[in-house]
Design a protein that fits this description.
442 residues; 23 strands; alpha+beta; 3 domains; 24% helix; 6-stranded antiparallel barrel; Phosphorylase Kinase, domain 1; Transferase(Phosphotransferase), domain 1
Length: 442
């Protein structure tokens, strides 16, 4: 704790609650201030304390406005109260403490943590939903980047920190502009202030970095830079950005052997997702008003992506690819072992959603529960391998009630909780709230 802005055992005053807040150990620090574990009444919380250069009256007023608001979603570690030391101008704020199960997005980008594809998709869904709810409230975040996002590698749950940067959309006149590689080009050029519209651009960069472990503007032009200093970065990402897969401008393609990650990963993803990235980094540059991809569009595409995961049995299920079941089966081979992949069956639901019935696929509220669109946290069933017949998959009932399975020849059976049934094309599974039809992958 030596050298910290606050000391262990120090008491600060939570102004809204009018209660003492006990400072415990320091959790970390940055340019704006330091974050501490603290005790507020019976609750364990986090306190961010500002450095004097940042602790302005404008920052205090902005914080007080955020404290008066309700967090747009539980994903935000939202300011709950302001805290101060009586008799000084120093202050900070209280926020929920981050659970130990969450790790920084930088861990994923640097591949120190490699969650399964469905978990990565769940991270994307959570972020799209969180920023949609933030923007609906007329707010903008201003600094979307992987430095401000945490996720649970097991579930894909997300948390967004540093919410003291949030402001009312369209009125930001000072404060943070963003993180250079994530800032919208018009902000980097000094032509615009952060807004929900520039948030959309930063969100697209975050998603591209998540899925492709690469930056959308770092191709041959970045490779040819002698020094990637602030001026070079401003040119690449602000003055004349060119998407590495721009269909009309090949001048900034990835360099084989240097940018191999993105070259290998780009063709693995379905065309519907790649089209959104092309739009985000072509139309979204030329027309920041109409060209940006909305959170709702990302949410729809990432949900389809989650349901399109295809695993290779020869690799033990570790090598994951994608197949869009609305497209003809291409007869693809596994990217890792090169073994041919068999076309899996597809379960098409009344809701319009469909899952590729590859081991590990899940039937969730999103698929079968009316009014629960994009709810993947509530799981009712899973696609499982047959215990003795390799290549054969079944559907296991993980719900609390029985399902009815009608075979293609008119047979009918009850599928009780905990039991599985082979997925036969032409069968219909009645989940209660809705139905799913099994069809052959073609």
């Amino acid at each position: 704790m030596s050298g910290g802005l606050l000391r262990e055992g120090q008491v600060v005053l939570a102004e809204k609650a009018r209660r003492s807040c006990l400072i415990m150990e320091m959790l970390g620090g940055g340019g704006q201030g330091e974050v501490y574990r603290a005790q507020l009444g019976n609750d364990l919380v986090a306190v961010k304390w500002y450095r004097d250069a940042v602790a302005s009256e404008a920052q205090r007023r902005a914080l007080e406005d955020l404290v008066r608001r309700v967090a747009p979603s539980p994903a935000f570690l939202w300011p709950l109260d302001t805290v101060r030391v009586p008799g000084t101008r120093s202050f900070g704020y209280v926020m929920p403490i981050r659970e130990d199960r969450f790790v920084g997005m930088v861990e994923l980008v640097r591949r120190r943590v490699e969650p399964p594809a469905r978990v990565v998709a769940s991270i994307g869904l959570g972020l799209a939903e969180a920023f949609l709810l933030l923007h609906v409230q007329g707010l903008c975040y201003r600094d979307i980047s992987f430095g401000n996002v945490f996720f649970d590698p097991e579930t894909g749950d997300v948390l967004v920190c540093d919410n003291d940067n949030v402001t009312v959309d369209g009125i930001a006149s000072g404060g943070i502009l963003g993180t250079p590689r994530f800032m919208a080009p018009e902000v980097m050029r000094g032509e615009a202030r952060p807004s929900s519209r520039t948030d959309l651009f930063s969100l697209a960069v975050l998603f591209f970095t998540m899925f492709f472990v690469h930056h959308p503007f770092e191709g041959v032009r970045e490779y040819d830079c002698n020094v990637l200093d602030a001026d070079a970065l401003r040119a690449l990402c602000g003055q004349a950005p060119v998407f590495v897969f721009d269909p009309d401008d090949p001048s900034n393609r990835p360099v084989p052997g240097v940018h191999q990650n993105v070259l290998d990963l780009w063709p693995l993803y379905p065309a519907f997702l790649r089209r959104l990235f092309v739009k985000a980094f072509t139309d979204g540059i030329r027309d920041p008003v109409e060209g940006r991809v909305r959170e709702s569009q990302w949410r729809q595409a990432i949900a389809r992506l989650r349901d399109s995961v295809l695993v290779c049995d020869e690799c033990g299920g570790d090598a994951e690819s994608f197949w869009d079941p609305t497209e003809p089966w291409s007869g693809a081979a596994c990217w890792r072992c090169r073994a041919p992949l068999a076309a899996p069956p597809v379960v098409a639901f009344d809701s319009g959603a469909a899952i590729v019935a590859s081991p590990g696929a899940e039937v969730c509220a999103h698929h079968v529960a009316p009014g629960r669109l994009y709810d993947y946290s509530t799981k009712f069933g899973a696609v499982v391998r047959h215990p003795t017949s390799p290549g054969v998959v079944g559907l296991r009932n993980d719900s609390d009630w029985g399902w009815v399975v009608r075979g293609p020849a008119g047979s009918e059976q009850e599928l009780r909780p905990g039991k599985s049934v082979k997925l036969v094309p032409g069968s219909v599974v009645d989940f209660g709230p809705s139905q799913g039809t099994v069809r052959a992958g073609t």
